[in-house]
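Entry 14. Structure prediction run on the chain below.
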Amino acid sequence: MSRPFESSQELLEAVADLMTRLEAGGHVQALAEIRAGHRCLNGLTDGWALFLAAIEKVETTHALRWPRDEQKALKLIVKAVHAAVYGRRR
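Output returned:
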């Protein structure tokens, strides 16, 4: 199975794009939770783990009400961040 993103930069661009779309769609609470997790990114595994916890929470509590494209984007992001934290695929 191929990696969802070719680089960390591509992953971070996808996160920024998703946040922009969530803001435009009025998904304020989900956006706030993703932003809070995103602020934890510091280049260390602990920061990625905190970000993973935030986006997994959003996936289970908010994403079901989103358009399909945003759900798919979040799922790919969660998969990539999970691999970054645990070194394997989800």
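The helical segments are 8-24, 28-38, 45-61, 68-86.
Filed with the rest of this week's runs.
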